[in-house]
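Why do we care about 3D structure at all? Because function follows from shape, and shape follows, mostly, from sequence. That is the central idea of this module. The next example makes it concrete: a single protein chain, its amino acid sequence, and then its structure expressed as tokens.
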Amino acid sequence: MPYISHTENERQEMLSTIGVKTFNELIKNIPTELVLKKDVNLPAPLSEFEVIQHLNQLSQKNINTNQMISFLGGGAYDHFIPVAIDHLILRSEFYTSYTPYQPEVSQGTLQAIYEYQTAICEITGMDVANASMYDGGSALAEGALMAIGETQRKQVIVSKGVHPHYRQILKTYCHGQGIEIIEIPLGNGMTDLEILKSRISDQTAGVLIQHPNFLGYLEEVDEIAPMIHQHGGLFVTSNDPISLGVLNPPGSYDVDIMTGEGQVLGNSLNYGGPYLGIFAVKSQFVRRMPGRLVGATADSTGKRGFVLTLQTREQHIRRAKATSNICTNQALNALVGTIYLTLMGKEGFQKVAELCLQKSHYLAEAIQNVGGLELKYKNPFFKEFVFQSPLNSQELLEKLRVKKIMGGVNLSDFDINLPNSILVATTEKRTRTELDYYISVLKEIFK
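And the structure:
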């Protein structure tokens, strides 16, 4: 925003226009105990030029992923972002366009969403995708509510292999609605299928699985779908879109509702958001799908066009019949995902996934050769895995940070009872030199 300073005369003129004499009179309705009474000892005022200089100096204290080697994951990943993306999305037609409410809103906006929906269906193998949700966590929670609405049951089962933050969002969504949430523990880093099978019943609306799961390991999804379907419930997954470059798409293993986090599709890390919630379903559930859906049509002259269709949102139909109260979609982030997938193409998308797979396994193999370190589990994984350290996790990560390495996610911060364990993510951006440097620093620490 512009730098606008005020003189004392200007302040008095504003107070006079408002109808008070002093600033304290202006805020007299604020309880006295909430009013700051001591001097905050602010520095002398700065000019616009001086403020810009000061802010630039402060910004130099920030550290970003271009200054550090990042092995962070757990839901947000340092993937390569083609430079063309910013040049396209920062065009005013996209960057400042308003959320589509009317069915016939700007054809450019609607076509961009339609192309996004098509791309998501192609990589997931699902029948229909919506115009996007807020993020991966809210998308999964909406999937649970959709399963409840479809089956008219009040119980959902969620694996503890689902991201802890996603599970917290699920609890928030279900709070106050009388919905029972059953959590299934992990066995050897993956959902315990025996316990899962024993808890599914005719009261279960859906089973929620993350694949690859929060720890990076591949769940036995082919075995889970029949378990829930024989009881009339729905299979809901949260998938890493990049993994679909090498793994079977959810549509191939009979998923009813597929969700996911689309940050990996060309969106910046952005200190945690805004992100992109992916949501796709089998065609028979399309009328219960939350959010917006854009369809292709033709006008009175036969010219192809696009329109919002099958609207189930509360602003378009009677509230009691709404399937969700979500009021918008992440159109700009979805556009980023569309451009990313278009630029990469089928072969490029697959190559990114293959590089993630190969580099993460190279690193995992090398870590096992560092004295004192071991892989926590031997399960198949995509781009993330867990290793265990004799050192306290936070202490080890601090030692790595001194060497300009963000070494991974401290799993002691979560509710999965894995002390001294670190979740490591390796994307296509990590070079052989960086991987070897990580190992050399670990060897130095544990020599």
